[in-house]
Amino acid sequence: MYYLETEDGKVIYKVKGLKHEIELTITDFKNLLIKDALIEKQQKKWRRNLSSGYINIIEQLYTLKVTENKRKLIYKNSKLVGTKAYKIDKSKDIC
């Protein structure tokens, strides 16, 4: 996910899996920098069943949170300040 505010004040953000109609603010993104924070948004998703020939529209809860899936998170005073690449040593331990 990313958030960009251009010099002329235009805001651009992208969150994988979240509908474009769902509004997020700079405050939402700043709040995600706090350790263990999350944001929950409701969105409508279309589920289609081609064999039956119908489409269901369901309400779905979408949760945004910071994860350590790809990089180690570095916190200072419970606020995210950076990340660090994981390293795999010769014994295949992740550190």
Explained architecture:
This protein has a domain of 65 residues. It is 6% helix and 47% strand. A two-stranded antiparallel ribbon has the order 1-2. A two-stranded antiparallel sheet has the order 3-4. Strands 5-6 form a two-stranded antiparallel sheet. β5 and β6 form a beta hairpin. The two termini are 25 Å apart.
Which key features would you list for this structure?
mainly beta; two-stranded antiparallel sheet; 1 helix
Q: Taking Cα atoms only, what radius of gyration do you get, to the nearest Å?
A: 18 Å
Question: Beta fraction of the residues?
Answer: over 45%
Helix content: under 10%
Q: What is the average per-residue confidence, as pLDDT, rounded to a whole number?
A: 90
Shape: extended
* Secondary structural class: mainly beta
Give the strand order of the largest sheet, numbering strands 1, 2, ... along the chain. 1-2
Number of β-strand runs: 6
Mind describing the biggest β-sheet? 2 strands, antiparallel
- Roughly how many Å apart are the termini? 25 Å
- Poorly predicted sequence stretches spanning 5 or more consecutive residues: none
H/I helix tally: 1
Order of helices and strands: EEHEEEE
